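Subject: design request, 146 residues
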């Protein structure tokens, strides 16, 4: 297979425990269809927390290294991170550094969801105790005999 940008032969190498195809010139990576999931799993294994992967899918111009079809482009998980994808589901092309951004976004998403879950638990405990009990308005009401 050749790089969709440089047309240089891709070499196989280990990257984060995965066998990926790597361009020695532009340092891009070709991930087979299931390998993007496996890369994401190194940052967050919970499929439910990952959410929808593809937003704003559109036609692209780069050829798929596997079949030569023009790849589609989508914004990764609603972020400004365009990723090329084979329309025949052969895989994904990541430009240099994009795999790090994917991992950073997955880690941030997991952290944000943990923080959100913690806030929801605190809110639930607050409501179990009667909501605004002991709050400023309750004190004023008590002051006036309410």
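Subject: RE: design request

Done. Sequence follows.
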């Amino acid at each position: 297979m050749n790089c969709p940008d440089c047309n240089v032969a891709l070499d196989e190498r280990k990257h984060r425990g995965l066998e990926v195809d790597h361009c020695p010139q532009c340092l891009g990576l070709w991930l087979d269809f299931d390998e993007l999931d496996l890369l994401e799993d190194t940052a967050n294994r919970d499929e439910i927390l990952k959410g929808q992967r593809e937003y704003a899918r559109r036609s692209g111009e780069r050829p798929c290294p596997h079949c030569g079809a023009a790849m589609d482009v989508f914004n990764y998980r609603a972020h400004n991170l365009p990723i090329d994808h084979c329309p025949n589901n052969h895989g994904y092309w990541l430009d240099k550094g994009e795999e790090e951004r994917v991992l950073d976004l997955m880690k941030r998403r997991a952290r944000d969801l943990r923080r959100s879950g913690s806030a929801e638990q605190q809110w639930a405990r607050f409501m179990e105790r009667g909501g605004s009990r002991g709050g400023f308005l309750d004190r004023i009401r008590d002051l006036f005999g309410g």
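The CA atoms of residues 43 and 108 lie 9 Å apart.
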